[in-house]
Each structure stands twice: as structure tokens, then as C-alpha cells.
Design a protein that fits this description.
The complex is a heterotrimer of chains A (285), B (559) and C (602). Chain B contains 22 helices and 3 strands. Chain B is an all-alpha fold. In chain B, strands 1-3-2 form a 3-stranded antiparallel sheet, with no helix packed on it. The radius of gyration of chain B is 31 Å and the shape is globular. Chain C is mainly α. Classes of the chains: A alpha+beta (285), B mainly alpha (559), C mainly alpha (602).
Chain lengths: 285, 559, 602
């Protein structure tokens, strides 16, 4: 009897805890934290991040339903059928109808998830997402170099071309324009070349919901777009206007040291920053 | 004989063990105390003069002067008192106004964002303990304890609550930068975090966590991770640093070291530490300077000791050595160079000018006056060139047993094939290429000298024109890269800089990549699109195959 | 036990499924009997002891990892004094990379796979199909002894400069192939690859043996669809190994070749690593790092199923016995395992959504990955169906199996986020992944393994393990496992990356330390709690309660043999009349109807 109660309670506790932990994610285990960072994912500010978050919630709803059904059934059966009794169990080898039912329903749910994400994934990663209406490639804003254990961001300077004398480098801090002059939400794209000098690294910006490995020997075109409304909301109660860049692929003993920041500026300020950096490039300090 | 079953007692024994584990929930680990040692060179040179037994004198003197890793400090000498200096308050008296402002800004914006947010929302009790800031936390818990609203006071009385908006008695605590009157608890709490500058002890703690595993306890570049790195971590004890803006061989400015912390030394294992506040970085620089001075003092004391016959270290010798070392570092700012040169804006220069100046730079590069080619090679590939520039190295006898295996493992030896006047490889009777073994000369730290390969576009000390200018004009401290000859004018140096940047730019991967894609697109268009359209970009594509030395039109195409 | 079938079977050699009775009565010496034994039961127990020893080692590595994450760069107990005198006893970053690399390697290749396929595969297959031994007993012995060079290679790798491999258990090049890239890649990585190759040999010999034995040596009347699900699961795992292992072996040979002979399969041009350009040092280049990822995951994704499918089989058997009810939907269970195995070969790309692989491939792998969730769901529903209307006996094996189901539900459901590419882009390589696969591998496989050890222990040693201790073991393990791994979901949601030695300097991570301290304390408790198991295991070996052939009243064939079974396993010939799960059959008076019992001829 003791064991019966214990096991049932354990399972029920897991069920309740599983639900509570997702519903209320700011409790004592976390320790003190200001509003920006909880044990949930950080605020989202990219043009596509909302789609990822929505997909997350869609899956969350489905998974919660399945979790409650299965864990509930498990907990209930443990309590119900572990009672001491003399009669035999139900003699049954299965049910064809039930099998069909619980194959078809999850299959349908999984297919819904699978197909609902395809367009987002294509918009995130396909080459066509980095072209303009005429199929021409959009110009590159900046070259992201990963190396052990540093991020370097190389800008083409005023002439827009790499490998010329007005290129300038920024260590640690990636600065990108908000593209607030561009009215079309879907066109607020900044194109980057992602490269590695030595081993695999991964360019991860939690706030932008973006991650891509930097593979040595490969040049990858990637794009990031910032949703200015979301950004304004986030910036409203933050003193610091920049966000973490993290290396997400093991790159050696100093993996944990490989950090950077991304700062998003309104277009006008971005232009000013480029001027400043150019002045610094040819400065004598 | 049957053994009695033990199971009945088992659970209780084990439960006891587990209680022990649970009791460890409040476990707060510390770390073992570190201690400074003497360098291997010190011990070797003391051995040479038969004074090994006197080494405690040296280490004792060093402890008196510089303290221990737990309590690092400078000994205050009479001279310092006369001149009103206190190096133990390094930040207080050495930093400029702008640097202080930067520190306050960084602390506010990044390092203590979390704490400041909580203070702003008046959740004082939840303010988390900052990393590496023991003193700050001590002040917080001692002086701001009343702000910990809702917690029972120590004597068991009721929980104290202080209105954080109320003014507090200024005499009770001291927060730098706080206005004398009308300040509130909340303002004071805020300022405490914003104005924080780490003490030497806190910086030593941060050094332990962040730097020590490469640079070692003494700053000798010999931490456990250091031995796997190439180039080796800097040995501070020589007092020499490479990426500086002072004259060759002089001590670095504080700002030079901060720059390295902010930028890292690119493509080496030294990353940037820009994620810390500038206050913390300045603090780290304080501690690195202490380690460097300690190492220099150590070397000089050993020399003094060897010079004296008795093997004693008189007090005034120690003091004069210490003062001399300290003076070098204190006056580092005075050696700042190239602060007022005008950097040519060659992004605004005409194409003809660039070509002319680059061509002049090339002549200098290949000439015997500047003599760049003798180390960096005719093609600018430096140590990566297939034929090692011979001025870098000396021939050694391969069969000789004097080859140092450790130096060899670090790429310190190189086989070079012998060539005749026509560039043909010489062969011996059996048809094998004749070759010599060269030993690459070491720099001051004992690392094989590796002249920069310009075509990789990697410049560790910075890639701006002014950085390259400083490297050429003043050389690189501690290496075989010399300062420019007096016969080379500033204009010549700028032409060299232009030429070196051209070498780097012409193999630029992004540019090669863009060209490749353009060529592919064109090919695609030629196959699928109308034929008449495809000639438009031809002239654009021609320049990517011309590399290195023969032309400058790569720069021209930038306009 | 009387055998009603004795007269109907012609005893003798060569007849499949019959026992050799009167032969081989000469006593073997100690060495032949217990060390270089060809008896599948001894080999199984050898595998089990090897696995348990390495379990402790891998667990200690995990504890060291947890210590560093809770209190980074603080004095490490015990090993601090020995290994790190110059850093104030704090571990070094390269040692941390070694820790998680070897934790993964050991737990996968030296604990889970040997315990599941080596120990239980060996011990159970012949017993459950009524065979006297494996088809190739000597090959079986070689299979175990091929693990010994592997163990040697692992220990050699610790002795290399750099202190052990540090490229992660996935060993992604160029970090793993270029010596200057990481201290662990100097020479330790080569030993690591050799160890992997030896483990591969061992698994391969085992797999050939299992497939042959299961196909050729079943007792008369034991059709494929009368086999216990454990045997099915082990058959499927063996087939997975047969088809996937050659790829891993080839890949590790390629990596060895890159490292030792300086070929360039995985080395692209223009690298500068630690001042050294591999091409300048004479190595070939022009390779592609992604090639390794494809090859590696082509093996390692099926390996994930090698690690969980046998556990599913073991759990199904234990569940049915202790719920006193036939397995619900036997054939769907078999089909779902088969489809897991089939789909398992075309989903490897879901480890590479963020790797720079062609995104069109990502789409395909995403759909396949979604579909592989389906058979797992079917299995869970069938287990629940088995429980429904059953008569649950809350014995220790049953408790662990119930724990297994609960954990598998959580681990399986969290996998759906990973299959959804836009979400996976965010959670890839975060602690959510760590939580997910630990729920499957620890909460799933290890719980099933504990259950299986408690369940088949009487068959192995003729004594049962102590039930009270077993229950205490279960309750603590269940609580602490969730305390450790559930919390990792939250770390992952906050974006915490795996393999980060000291995350707290990042703004995004600084607030995660209290949670990590909690996890670490849970992990320590979990580790210490296993004392109950270790004590119970060795204590019961000598002082446990003696039991007869069939202490659980189970139907399947292994319970027909004596406990422990002698050489040749069965003392009387067998004939099988029905499936393995005929519990609660109303046509007989007892609660169970053994597979060998002939009720019609009575």
C-alpha cells in the first residue's frame, strides 16, 4: 500500500510539475533575475522569430495535450490497477480499432507541425530569401569571421566592396542597421557572409533566434532582420542596447570565452557609426 | 559457515551517508591559496653563480615588494611618498577623466545591469552577488543591509524595512561620487555599483579565473594550458609587450594593454575580453603590470646578487632596483609615439596616386634599405613561404645532437632545398634533393620567429594603417622586426603600408568569393539567357587573377 | 517441474532448439569457465560487470562536469590536488573538454551499448528462444575480448599529452583532426578513434551472432511472432548495428588517416590553427568538414536507437510479467520497432539543421524526423494499453519500468520541438538537447536496464535482489533524475549552450547559476543513491534469497531453465505452443500460461 501511494504520488507530482514548470517559469530555483532574463527564452526581436515562437507554442499545446493524456493515464492506471485483488487481469491482446486511432491522430498532428513550419524554414534559409524581386543577390552588409576564440566583423566601408582600403574591422561588436527606412517588413534584411578561419564555430544570437555553424572552407550567405517594433519594446526598459552573440559549436578549450555582442542601430545612427569607424580606421590613436 | 545477511542494516547506513550529501546544499567551495614562485631562469642563473641557497632572499624581497596572489600590493617607498604617488590606488590616481567615465558607463550598461535593474525596482534583497567583486559585495552586505527588506535582523528582532527613497546619514558609509546632501539610499546603492573599480585583490581573483590557466601564477606564460598553444602566451616577466604604441623596447602604456584585452591578439589563443566592464579590464591591467614589474625586479635582483660576491641583497639595492623598475612603468605614457602623424586617407586618394605610392612601397619592400623581403619573402608570405628567408635562420648540422626536440616540435627547424643560380633544385648522386636544416632564430621569449604572412590578412596588433605604421617605424619589441632605418622617411613608411595592405587585399577571400559567384552567374546567364547580354561584366572580372606584386589595380577597382 | 513434452521431442545434436544432454560433462577449469568462457551467460555477465564499472567512471566524469558548472574554477575535490597544483586546484578548460568528451564516449560506447546488447543480448537471446547457446560461441567470446583493447585504448588516451581527447564525443573535424587545434587532438584523439574501432569490432561480432542465433536456433514451435519483444528488439538493434557500423568504422579510419597519414578528407584549405597551417606542414587539404558529420551521424543516429530499442523490448517484457496481462498489441509493437529501425537510417540530418547543410535537405530530414516520432508514440500507447485493466505487482523491476515509461514520455515529447526546424535553430546544442537525450538514455535506457537487472537477476545468480533496497533505490533515483534533467530544459530555454565551461560571464547566462547549483546537488545525490544498487547487487549475489526457476511466474522460455542455468541452458527439450505473454488466460486456472505448456494434449 505504501508503495502504491508513493509511486502514484511520484507520477502525479511529475505530471503536475511538468505542467507548472512551463506555466510559471519564474520561481525560487532560478534565483533573483531582472525582467530581461528568465529561464524562458529571451525576448524575440527578429522579423522571423515570431514564427519560430508561434511554432513553439503550437507544439507546446499539442505536446501538453499528449503529456496530460499519457501521464494522466499512466498515473491513473498505476493507482487503479495496483490494488490488491484476487481476480485475473483483463485478458486482451489488443484492439485493432484503438491501434488505428492512436496511429492516425498523432500522425495527423505531426504532419500539421511538419507542414506548418516549411515556409518559415524556407524564408530563413533558402537562397531565394536573400535575393531581391529580380533575382539579384542583395548586397552584403558585413563579413563575420569566426576564429579560436574570437568574433571579427569586417565591414566593406563606404564603397560597399570588400578587399579595398576602406574596409574596417570590429572586434567583439557586430553593429547592424534596423532598416527602419524600409517600409516593407519582409525586406528588412541584412546579408552577411559567415566564415571560419580554423575550426567549426556557430554564430548564435538568442534574441534573433538565429544559429548557424561557421564551417571552415565554406562561405555561407545568411541574413538577419530586426523587427523594429519588437526592438523598441525591448529597448524601452534596457540600459544596454546590445545583445549576446554566443559560439554554439565546440571550438576547443576556449569555447566558453568566445563571445560577442550585436547592437542594432536606427539607420541614421548606423550611418554615423560607419563614419566613426572609418575615421577610427584612418585615425592615429 | 553461513554469513549473516546485512541487508537489514544497509538502508540506515546509507541513509546516513545521504544526509551528509544533503547537508552539503549550502556548500560554498573556495580554492587553494596560490603562491608566487621564482622563474626557472632565476634558479638557473643562481645555480650558475653557486647561490642557489640564497633564492629565499630573492623571493622574500619580492614578497615584501609585491605581496602574494592573495594580497598583491606595491610597497610604498620614500620616493613615492615624496611625489605623492600611491600605486596601490592604481585606478584612483592614474586613470583619466574619460577613462573613469567609460568605466562608469560600462558598469551601468553591462556588467551590473542585473543588479541595477533590481535596485531600480527596489528589490534590494534579491540583488545577486557580482562575480569577482568581493569588496563590492562586502560593502553591500555591510552598509546596505537595512535595504534587505523583509529579512529578519541579526538579533532575532522583527524584519527591518527602510524606505529606499529616504535620505541616509552620509557619515555612515562612503560611496564615491555621491552628492553630499539629499542623496537617497537608492541613489547610493546605484552609485556603489556604477562607480565600482576593482581592488588589486579582486583583479587577482579575476586573473585567477580568466587568465591564470594560460599565463600562469607568476605571469610567466607557463600555465597548464599554455604549453599547448602556439604562439605561447606572453611571459610578462620580461616587461616586454609586442602590440604597443611606444618606442621599441619601452614599457607599454596602460592603454596598450587595455587595447589588447579589448581586441584580443587576432588568430592567437588570446581572445578579447570585451565582455567585461572597462573597470574590470583596467583592474586586470593593474594586476598584469604588477606581475610584469615583479618579474623584472626578480631578474634584476638576481643580476645584482650575482654581481655581489657575498650573495647578499642589501636593502638599498632592493629599493633602488624597485624604484628603477617602477619608474619605467610609471613613465610609459611619456613614450607614446606617432600621436600626431597624419594618416593618408587613401580611400579618398586618386587611383594614380595609389598605384604610384604602392609601386614605391614595393620598391622599398624589395630594396636593401628597408630590407623587408629578407624576412617576409619576395612574395610577402613570410614564414609560410616555401623557401624560408635565410636571414631568419642559421644552418645547423642535422646529424648533430644539439637539435632541441621541443623547439623542433614548435616548428623551430626547417629544411630548405638548395637551388642553383637558375632556380633548379640541386640533387645529389642518388637523385635526392640537397637540402640544409635551418634553425629559426628565437625571439626574446624563446619562440621561433615567424614573420607575418601578409597574404593571410592577419595582423595581430591591429590592421589599421596607423598600427602597421607603428610596426614598421618602431619595430616590434622583443622580436627581430627592427625599427625602421633613419634613411626611411615617413612618406616611405606610408608607401610600405599601402603596399602591405595591397598584398593582403589582393587575396581577400570575400572578394574572390564575390568574383566567383559573379562568374558563375554569368556562366549561367550565358547558357540560359540571351547571348548579347553577357559581355557587360567582362572588364570587372579580369582583375581577380592578378595577385600580389605586379599590379595595383585592385585598389583602383574600389572606386 | 514435469515436462509433458519430453516424449514428443527427439533429443540429439543438430536438431534446432533441442538441448544437448549427455555430452560435455567434463568440468572446465576456472579460467575456461569464468574468464575465457564461451558460455553466453558468462559472457553476458562479463559484459554487465564491464558496463557497470565504466558506469561508475562515466558517472564520476559527470560529477566533475556538474561541479565545474555549479562552482566554476573553484577547488576541485580529490582530483584538484593530484592534477592541478598550479591553478589552486581548479580544473583547466582543456580538462573540462576532456571530461564531457569522455563522459559521452564512455556512457554510450562502454556502458549503454555493452549493457543492452552485450549483457542482456548475450544472456537473454539463447534463453528466450530456447537455444543451448549462441550460434557462434567462440565469436561471442572474441566479441567480449575485443572490448579489452578498446578499454586499453581509452586509458592510453588519458595518458597522452593534453590529458585525453577534447573534441566532444562527436569528434567534429577540424577540431579533432588538426593536432594544433586542441590539446586533446595531439595524440589522444587517435587512441580515442582506435577505441571506437575496437568497440565497433565487438559490436559487429555480437550483431552477427545475434542475428544468426535468432534466425536459426529458435526452439521448435517458436515462430518469429511468438518471440518475446526483447528478442525482437535485440534482433532489430543487431540489424541496425550491422548496417550502420561499417560507416562509422570507415569514417574513423578516414579520420585516423587524416590525423596520422595527413590525408585531407575533412581538412579544408586555408586553415590557420594556432599559427600552424596544416598544408604548410605537408598535410593534404581540400576536404569538407561536413562530410564527417554526415558519416558520423549516419552511424550515430541509428546508434541512438541501438541504445533505446532494446530498452523498449526489455520494458515490454517486464511490464507484461508484472502487470499480469498480455502485451497490448504485440504486432503493432513489432511493426513500430521495425519502422523505427527503418526510418532511423534516414533522419541523421536532423543533427545538422544548423550546420550549413543544404536547407532543402533539411526539409526532407525534418519530415522524416516528424514521422519517426509516430512509432514511439504507438509504443507508449500500447504500454498504457497493457497497463489498463491489469493487475499491477509493484515489484522493483515493475517500478523501474513504470519510471521508464514516464521518462520516455517526457523525452519523446521534447523531441518534437527538435524536429521542428525553426525551433530547432534556437534550441540546437542548448541544454534542451542535453535534457532530451538524457531523458531517453538515462531516464529511458538506464531505467529499463535497472528494471531488467532486478528482473533477470534471479536467472543470472539464482537469488533475488532485496526488494526493500530496490524500492528505496527506485524512489531516490526517480526523484533525483527528474531533479537533474528536468531542470536542464529550463537552462536550455534560457539559451545555455552545451560544452560551455564557464557560462556565467555572459549576460544571458549570469542568472543561471542557482539553477545549476540545484542540478549539481541533485546529480550528486543521484550518484550517491546508486550505492543502494551496488550494495544490493553484490550483496544479493552471495546472501540474497534463493529462488526456483520461475520466481515471477512468467511465461517465456528463459524461466524453464534452472536458475542459474547450467551449461547448455535447458535440462529438458522444449516445444513452444504460443506467444510469450499469455497472462490472465481464463482457460487455465493459473494466472499464467507458459509458452511450453501443452494444454490441448491433456
Amino acid at each position: 500500500m505504501l508503495m502504491r501511494i508513493t509511486v502514484t504520488l511520484l507520477m502525479a507530482a511529475l505530471l503536475v510539475f511538468g505542467l507548472v514548470s512551463w506555466a510559471d517559469y519564474d520561481f525560487w530555483l532560478m534565483g533573483p533575475s531582472p525582467s530581461h532574463y528568465t529561464w524562458w527564452w529571451p525576448e524575440e526581436m527578429s522579423t522571423l522569430g515570431q514564427h519560430a515562437d508561434n511554432l513553439f507554442w503550437l507544439i507546446m499545446v499539442m505536446v501538453t495535450v499528449m503529456f496530460v493524456i499519457t501521464m494522466g493515464a499512466l498515473t491513473y492506471s498505476i493507482w487503479k490497477f495496483s490494488a490488491k485483488r484476487q481476480d485475473k487481469a483483463v485478458f486482451s491482446h489488443g484492439s485493432h480499432k484503438l491501434e488505428l486511432l492512436w496511429t492516425a491522430i498523432p500522425a495527423a498532428m505531426l504532419l500539421v507541425i511538419a507542414f506548418s513550419q516549411m515556409s518559415t524554414f524556407a524564408a530563413m534559409q533558402f537562397d531565394s530569401s536573400m535575393e531581391d524581386e529580380n533575382g539579384e543577390e542583395l548586397p552584403v552588409l558585413c563579413e563575420i569571421w569566426a576564429s579560436q576564440f574570437d568574433w571579427r566583423f569586417r565591414y566593406p566601408g563606404r564603397d560597399g566592396r570588400f578587399g579595398t582600403n576602406d574596409d574596417f574591422e570590429s572586434a567583439y561588436e557586430l553593429v547592424i542597421p534596423m532598416r527602419d527606412r524600409e517600409p516593407d517588413h519582409d525586406k528588412k534584411k541584412n546579408i552577411f557572409l559567415l566564415r571560419s578561419r580554423d575550426v567549426l564555430h556557430s554564430f548564435f544570437v538568442p534574441h534573433l533566434r538565429f544559429k548557424r555553424d561557421a564551417v571552415p572552407g565554406m562561405t555561407q550567405r545568411i541574413w538577419l532582420g530586426v523587427d523594429d517594433e519588437q526592438l523598441a519594446e525591448i529597448m524601452a526598459d534596457r540600459e544596454d542596447k546590445s545583445f549576446d552573440i554566443i559560439c554554439a559549436e565546440l571550438c576547443g578549450w576556449g569555447h566558453y570565452k568566445m563571445s560577442g555582442r550585436v547592437r542594432v542601430l536606427p539607420d541614421a545612427e548606423y550611418e554615423k557609426w560607419v563614419d566613426e569607424m572609418t575615421a577610427l580606421q584612418f585615425g592615429n590613436s | 559457515m553461513r554469513l549473516r545477511p546485512l541487508t537489514s542494516r544497509g538502508p540506515f547506513v546509507l541513509a546516513g551517508l545521504l544526509v551528509g550529501v544533503f547537508a552539503s546544499c549550502d556548500y560554498d567551495p573556495g580554492h587553494a591559496d596560490l603562491s608566487f614562485g621564482l622563474s626557472e631562469t632565476t634558479m638557473a642563473s643562481l645555480d650558475d653563480v653557486g647561490l642557489a641557497s640564497s633564492s629565499p632572499q630573492v623571493s622574500g624581497a619580492l614578497t615584501t615588494l609585491f605581496g602574494t596572489p592573495q594580497d598583491p600590493h606595491y610597497l610604498i617607498t620614500g620616493d613615492m611618498l615624496d611625489e605623492d604617488e600611491n600605486p596601490n590606488l592604481a585606478g584612483e590616481f592614474e586613470l583619466t577623466e574619460e577613462q573613469w567615465e567609460a568605466i562608469a558607463r560600462d558598469n551601468r550598461s553591462r556588467r551590473f545591469l542585473r543588479q541595477l535593474d533590481l535596485i531600480a525596482s527596489e528589490r534590494f534583497a534579491e540583488v545577486p552577488e557580482p562575480l569577482y567583486a568581493g569588496d563590492l559585495w562586502a560593502i553591500w552586505t555591510r552598509d546596505f543591509a537595512p535595504l534587505h527588506t523583509g529579512e529578519a535582523s541579526e538579533d532575532g528582532g522583527p524584519a527591518t524595512t527602510v524606505d529606499p527613497a529616504s535620505a541616509f546619514p552620509v557619515d555612515d558609509l562612503w560611496v564615491p561620487g555621491l552628492p553630499e546632501d539629499g542623496a537617497t539610499w537608492a541613489e547610493a546603492a546605484r552609485l556603489l555599483f556604477v562607480q565600482w573599480y576593482p581592488s588589486m585583490r579582486e583583479s587577482a581573483e579575476m586573473y585567477r579565473a580568466q587568465c591564470l590557466h594560460c599565463h600562469g601564477v607568476d605571469g610567466g606564460g607557463n600555465g597548464p594550458t599554455g604549453e599547448f598553444l602556439e604562439p605561447r602566451p606572453r611571459d610578462y616577466r620580461l616587461g616586454k609587450f609586442k602590440w604597443i604604441a611606444v618606442e621599441n623596447g619601452k614599457r607599454p602604456r596602460r592603454q596598450d594593454l587595455v587595447n589588447i584585452l579589448m581586441q584580443g591578439a587576432y588568430t592567437t589563443a588570446m581572445p578579447n575580453f570585451a565582455r567585461f566592464s572597462s573597470g574590470q579590464l583596467h583592474g586586470l591591467v593593474d594586476y598584469v603590470r604588477l606581475l610584469a614589474m615583479r618579474g623584472e625586479t626578480e631578474t634584476r635582483l638576481v643580476l645584482e646578487m650575482g654581481d655581489s660576491d657575498s650573495g647578499d641583497l642589501p636593502l638599498d639595492t632592493i629599493q633602488s632596483t624597485y624604484s628603477a623598475v617602477w619608474a619605467n612603468w610609471r613613465d610609459a605614457d611619456e613614450n607614446y609615439v606617432a600621436a600626431d602623424v597624419v594618416v593618408p586617407r587613401w580611400d579618398q586618394m586618386s587611383v594614380e596616386d595609389q598605384v604610384t605610392r604602392g609601386e614605391h612601397g614595393r620598391e622599398l619592400f624589395m630594396g636593401t634599405l628597408a630590407n623587408c623581403f629578407s624576412c617576409h619573402g619576395m612574395d610577402g608570405r613570410g614564414a609560410d613561404a616555401p623557401n624560408l628567408p635565410i636571414s631568419l635562420a642559421e644552418v645547423v648540422d642535422a646529424d648533430d645532437h644539439e637539435i632541441d626536440p621541443e623547439y623542433e616540435a614548435r616548428g623551430g627547424y626547417r629544411w630548405v632545398e638548395l637551388k642553383d643560380a637558375n632556380g633548379q633544385t640541386l640533387t645529389d648522386a642518388e637523385g635526392h634533393a640537397k637540402r640544409d636544416l635551418y634553425r629559426i632564430k628565437p625571439d626574446d621569449w624563446g619562440n621561433p620567429s615567424m614573420p607575418r604572412n601578409f597574404t593571410q590578412s592577419i595582423f595581430r596588433g591591429g590592421s589599421r594603417p596607423i598600427d602597421l605604421y607603428r610596426r614598421i617605424k618602431y619595430g616590434i619589441t622583443g622580436t627581430i622586426m627592427p625599427a625602421a632605418e633613419a634613411g626611411i622617411s615617413d612618406g616611405d613608411i606610408w608607401d610600405l603600408v599601402i603596399y602591405v595592405k595591397t598584398l593582403a587585399n589582393s587575396t581577400d577571400l570575400a572578394r574572390v568569393y564575390e568574383h566567383k559567384r559573379a562568374a558563375l552567374a554569368e556562366l549561367h546567364e550565358a547558357e540560359h539567357g540571351d547571348a548579347g547580354h553577357s559581355n557587360d561584366h567582362d572588364d570587372d572580372d579580369d582583375d581577380d587573377d592578378h595577385t600580389d606584386t605586379d599590379t595595383n589595380d585592385d585598389d583602383a577597382s574600389g572606386h | 517441474m514435469s515436462d509433458p513434452n519430453a516424449s514428443s521431442i527427439r533429443p540429439g545434436m543438430g536438431e534446432p532448439g533441442t538441448t544437448r544432454t549427455s555430452h560435455e560433462h567434463h568440468e572446465l577449469g576456472f579460467i575456461r569457465k569464468y574468464i575465457f568462457s564461451v558460455d553466453h551467460k558468462v559472457i553476458g555477465i562479463q559484459f554487465m560487470l564491464l558496463g557497470l564499472v565504466f558506469f561508475v567512471l562515466g558517472g564520476l566524469f559527470a560529477m566533475a562536469i556538474r561541479y565545474q558548472l555549479a562552482w566554476p574554477w573553484e577547488s576541485m575535490p580529490v582530483i584538484g590536488d593530484l592534477l592541478f597544483p598550479n591553478t589552486g586546484q581548479a580544473i583547466t578548460p582543456e580538462f573540462y573538454t576532456m571530461l564531457f568528451t569522455m563522459h559521452g564516449t564512455i556512457m554510450i560506447f562502454f556502458v549503454i551499448i555493452p549493457l543492452l546488447t552485450g549483457a542482456f543480448g548475450n544472456f537473454l537471446i539463447p534463453l528466450m528462444i530456447g537455444a543451448p547457446d549462441m550460434a557462434f560461441p567462440k565469436l561471442n567470446m572474441y566479441g567480449f575480448w575485443a572490448m579489452i583493447p578498446a578499454v586499453g585504448c581509452v586509458f592510453m588516451s588519458f595518458l597522452q599529452p593534453g590529458g585525453g581527447p577534447g573534441a566532444g564525443w562527436t569528434a567534429y573535424p577540424p577540431l579533432s583532426t588538426i593536432a594544433s587545434a586542441s590539446p586533446g587532438s595531439l595524440s589522444a584523439q587517435t587512441w580515442w578513434l582506435l577505441a571506437l574501432t575496437w568497440v565497433g569490432f565487438s559490436s559487429m561480432m555480437g550483431a552477427v551472432n545475434y542475428v544468426t542465433t535468432i534466425v536459426k536456433m529458435r526452439a521448435p514451435g517458436l515462430t518469429m511472432f511468438r518471440m518475446p519483444l526483447t528478442v525482437w528488439a535485440l534482433l532489430i538493434a543487431a540489424l541496425l548495428q550491422l548496417f550502420a557500423l561499417p560507416v562509422l568504422t570507415a569514417a574513423s579510419m578516414m579520420q585516423i588517416s587524416d590525423r596520422v597519414f595527413q590525408s585531407g578528407f575533412f581538412t579544408p584549405t586555408n586553415l590557420v590553427i594556432n599559427q600552424i597551417n596544416p598544408e604548410g606542414a605537408g598535410a593534404a587539404a581540400g576536404g569538407q568538414p561536413l562530410l564527417w558529420q554526415h558519416l558520423f551521424w549516419f552511424y550515430s543516429h541509428p546508434a541512438v536507437y541501438i541504445m533505446v530499442v532494446p530498452a523498449m523490448g526489455l520494458a515490454s517484457d517486464i511490464l507484461s510479467v508484472h502487470a499480469r496481462k498480455p502485451v497490448f498489441g504485440y504486432k503493432p509493437m513489432v511493426y513500430s520497432m521495425c519502422s523505427i529501425a527503418g526510418l532511423g537510417f534516414i533522419v541523421w540530418g536532423h543533427h545538422m539543421f544548423a550546420s550549413g547543410m543544404n536547407p532543402a535537405l533539411g526539409m526532407t530530414f525534418m519530415v522524416a524526423t516528424m514521422m519517426i516520432a509516430l512509432p514511439s508514440a504507438i509504443k507508449v500507447f500500447n504500454w498504457l494499453g497493457t497497463l489498463w485493466g491489469s493487475r499491477i505487482q509493484l515489484t522493483t523491476p515493475m517500478l523501474f519500468t513504470l519510471g521508464f515509461i514516464a521518462m520516455f514520455i517526457i523525452g519523446g515529447l521534447s523531441g518534437i520541438w527538435m524536429a521542428a526546424t525553426p525551433v530547432d535553430i534556437y534550441i540546437h546544442d542548448t541544454y534542451i538537447i542535453v535534457a532530451h537525450f538524457h531523458y531517453i538514455v538515462f531516464g529511458g535506457s538506464v531505467f529499463a536496464l535497472f528494471g531488467a537487472i532486478y528482473h533477470w537477476y534471479p536467472k543470472m545468480f539464482g537469488r533475488v535482489m532485496n526488494e526493500t533496497l530496490g524500492k528505496i533505490h527506485f524512489v531516490g533515483t526517480f526523484i533525483f533524475t527528474n531533479g537533474v534533467f528536468y531542470m536542464m530544459h529550463q537552462l536550455g530555454m534560457a539559451g545555455l549552450m552545451r560544452r560551455t565551461a564557464d557560462p556565467y560571464d555572459y549576460e544571458s547566462y549570469a542568472h543561471l547559476q542557482p539553477l545549476n547549483v540545484f542540478i549539481t546537488i541533485s546529480a550528486f545525490c543521484l550518484f550517491v543513491w546508486q550505492i543502494f544498487f551496488v550494495w544490493n547487487f553484490f550483496h544479493s549475489m552471495f546472501w540474497g534469497k534463493r529462488v526456483g526457476r520461475n520466481p515471477w511466474n512468467a511465461c517465456s522460455l528463459e524461466w524453464e531453465a534452472p536458475s542459474p542455468p547450467g551449461h547448455g541452458n535447458f535440462d529438458s527439450p522444449l516445444r513452444v505452443y504460443r506467444g510469450p505473454y499469455e497472462y490472465a488466460d481464463p482457460s487455465v486456472e493459473e494466472d499464467f500460461l507458459a509458452q511450453t505448456r501443452d494444454i490441448e494434449s491433456k
